[in-house]
Amino acid sequence: MSEAKKPEMEYHILGNSGLKVSQLCLGTMTFQQSNDKKAFGWMPVVDEKGSHEFLNKFVKAGGNFIDTADAYASSEEVIGRWITDQTKEDKDFREKIVLASKVFFGPGLNTNGLNRRHILKACDASLKRLQVDYIDLYQVHTFDYTTTVKEVMSTMKILIDSGKISYWGVSNWKASQIMESMWIADK
Fold this sequence. Notes:
By secondary structure, this protein is of the alpha/beta class. The protein has 6 helices and 7 strands. It is globular and about 55 Å long.
């Protein structure tokens, strides 16, 4: 009896970017350095060794799209060490994955939300934790009613122009909020 052929991973173009991403995106919110704590105080976590095994299996299966966030700081650190380890074996490894992260949450008055200062500092902190020079897709984690969409967009342009991110996107925005950003972009 012949062994059944494994289905191959499918890829899609991310928006109009030309960037090819696997049909499946691996969310890594529960990837932690150890399994002795809960993510956000309640969610079971995967320790670093298990996280690296999971990432390796995902890539081996053809996955290339990995999502994290500044709110999952420990996850970014785990992914950063994994990328560094993979790059030791394959110097071009970073180019084979599409890394997405998100920004919004933070502990203080001006260290959360989508104000320019927070976005710029949060991006630098994510790059450091991820141990990479750029993030492929940097998303705003949720809408900020205290910062204008124009301010968010101009800040993302700064990050693109500086080479720290390739593209930016949104997460958890209403259709009307997305339409507003598209309207501003067309101006």
